[in-house]
Each structure stands twice: as structure tokens, then as C-alpha cells.
Amino acid sequence: MKVVILNNDFRVYWKGRLIYLRQYLTAQKIDFHAIELFGKGSPYSFDEYNNSLNWWSCLFADNSASELSISNIQSSLFKKLDAINPDVIIAPSIVFFAGALGIRWAKKNRKKFIMFDDATPGQVKRNFIVQWVKNLIFEQVNGFWFPTKGYFNEFSYLSNKGVHFFYGFNSIDNSFFKLSGKPLLNHKTIICVARLVPVKNLDTLIKAWQVIESLNTGYRLAIVGNGPEYHALNTLKLDLNLKTVDFLGIIANENLLEFYSKADAFILPSLSESWGLVVNEAMAAGLPVLLSHNINASKYLLKEGVNGYGFDPLNVADIAQVIKKYIDTDITSKQLMSANSLEIIDDMSYEKMGIQLAKALQIITEQKYKRPSFLAAQIINTWNGRYNTTGWDKL
């Protein structure tokens, strides 16, 4: 069996994930290839394309989507797919170029198509016609690859359309972030790891921290990351005369564990996250988590009072109250939260991701080809995708 996974770009978390899947699936006698479309234009632009693996290629290493015509993108992608001739295409949602063009090639060549996604329908409001068209295309998919089983409820309307659902997408290398011993949780530090961009809502967190500092808890807020909002956020810190907020800048991924190990909890106040993989990291490091209700990972990985607490990201008082609630929690309960984080995140390991994908590929390749209706075929052949990921940082 030959499989190709497509994406607009494969940055940061994707690298380790793809290398693991290549090794795991090769052992299952599955020939696995990765194709990314663009080498530039990613919201993770700090992570430059520098790949030289022969099974993983980038079609436009020196370009972003905005610099290319759709005909050029399609021509290059189809030529590459024709050369590999995979049995199965795995690609993102059809709102992305890789997803829209991936399903077009799959249907043209009578191949199987799997879509991965971590967003939910409720996150993006669409009018009836747009949603109807999207659902029509979704019905042509052979499988959906989601982070957790909780996503099934959002897409259950497709269960009678011959779509196979499986899980484990959005895994990280949990072992990389696991401490050699139990987290001490006695450093009086709460850590936030995030790009300094508006959607991360760090200004509201800093305002909430003013309440914490006024209570003389002895705790510090450590913010890891950089971005265009740094000067505004630092100015806010100075205007509020805060002494216990530290901007630590960008920390290389291989050094992040040291900072997680010196924290007592992790906090993320984002206004929106299709998932939030830093939550996986923090939990793999054994940290209790304090999370915005607007983070998808919060809905599926946070168990209220079990491994942390959730809050309304728009409510300064609520954020402060949750932080204070955690600070006041006794050390035994904090250690239990830490153990619970480790247990919960173990369900999203690389190993379980590989097992789920291999089983799904076997099931899907045994299915009959799903021939799209005339209307669905016309839509697939004209819809090119539109999502330029450089806009993800905006509100």
C-alpha cells in the first residue's frame, strides 16, 4: 500500500509526527510519503523549511501561497502525485489548498481520501448554503482523522454515509516532554507558552495577574514566546507596575522541558484555538493546566478539578479567580492533578496515533471506491480551497 499525506506546510509539531509515522508505517509494509505545498507563509515562520528527506518533499520551498497561481499549484501537485501514484491521500480540510486539491486528485484517479481536522463546525459560523456544500463534499470522504473520540458528536451526521472515523491526530512526542521524576510543583511559577499575537489574549492574562500580584502569593508568571505584541504587552506590564511577570522570549523546543519542570502549572488564555498543542506538551510534562474554555484541547483534555481548571478568557475576574484557586490548592491535590494530566495525555501518544492510522488504512483500502454524484463532482472540480494560514494570528 502506498500513502501520501498532504498539507499546505508541515512545521513545528508535524516534523516529529511524520518521522514517527514513516518509521511505524514502513514496519507495517506501508509506503508513506509526505508532500507540503509551500515553504513560506506559515504562521510558524520561525521554523524554516530545511528538509532533505527523499520521502518528504516541498513543491514550492521558496514561495508562499499568495505568490502562486492556483493552476501552478495544481499542476505541480498533480504531477508529483501522478509520479508516486498513492492508493490513499491524507489531507486537511477542503478549506485549505492541500485538502481541496487532494480530494480532486483522489476522485479523478479513483483513490481513497482521508481528511484530518481539529476544528469543529461550531467554531466557524456559515450560512446554510455554504454548510450544505461543505457537507456534500464531506460525504465523499472515506475517512475522518480527528484528535479524540469527542469529535464524533460534531460529525455524527456522516456516520451513515460510509465514512470511517478514527482518532489520535494532534499527537506529540509525549516521551520528549516527560520528566525523569515527578514534577515538584513547588517553584511558585505558572508558565504560559504562546506566540505573542492578539488571539492568544495575553493582555487579559496580564490584567488578571495584577490581581494575583496584589494578593502577595509569591507566585510569578513566566511567558515563553515572542511576536508582534511583545512591546504592547511589556508596556502593559510596566503601566500596571507588575514585578512578577517575566517575558522569557523564544525558547528552543529542545529546551522547553527545563522550563516546564520549573513551573507548577500551565496557563493558556486564548480567545480561539482549533486545538492548542502546547497543552499536550504541558500535560506530558506532568503539569496541571488552567485553560480558556475557547481552546478545543480544553474541551477534551481538561477535566475540571481533576487535572486543572477552565475559565472564561474574556473575564479578567474569572481568570484571576481560577489562578488563585489553583494557588490555594494543597500540594497533595496538585500532585494528583499532575498524575492525572500524565494519564489523560497518554491516550494521545505517537504509538496510539500510529496504531489508529494503520488500522484505518486497512479498513479504508478494503472499501469500494466512493463515486461522487454529478453535483459533488462539479463542486470538487471547481473548489480550490482558500485558506491562507498567515491570517491565523489575527482575531
Textual characterization of the structure:
- The protein is α/β, with parallel strands linked by helices.
- The chain has 2 domains: 2-171 and 349-393, Glycogen Phosphorylase B (Rossmann fold, 3-Layer(aba) Sandwich), CATH 3.40.50; 175-347, 3-Layer(aba) Sandwich (Rossmann fold), CATH 3.40.50.
- Helix content is 39%, strand content 16%.
- The protein has 15 helices and 13 strands.
- The chain has helices at residues 13-27, 70-84, 97-108, 128-138, 152-155, 174-177, 202-214, 230-239, 256-261, 277-284, 296-301, 316-327, 331-345, 350-365, 374-382; strands spanning 2-7, 31-38, 56-60, 88-91, 112-116, 143-146, 164-167, 189-193, 220-224, 245-249, 265-268, 289-292, 308-311.
- The protein has a 7-stranded parallel β-sheet with strand order 3-2-1-4-5-6-7, with helices on both faces. A 6-stranded parallel β-sheet has the order 10-9-8-11-12-13, with helices on both faces.
- Helix 1 links the parallel strand 1 (2-7) and strand 2 (31-38).
- The radius of gyration is 22 Å and the shape is elongated.
- The protein starts with a strand and ends in a 13-residue tail after the last helix.
- The model has no long low-confidence stretch (mean pLDDT 93).
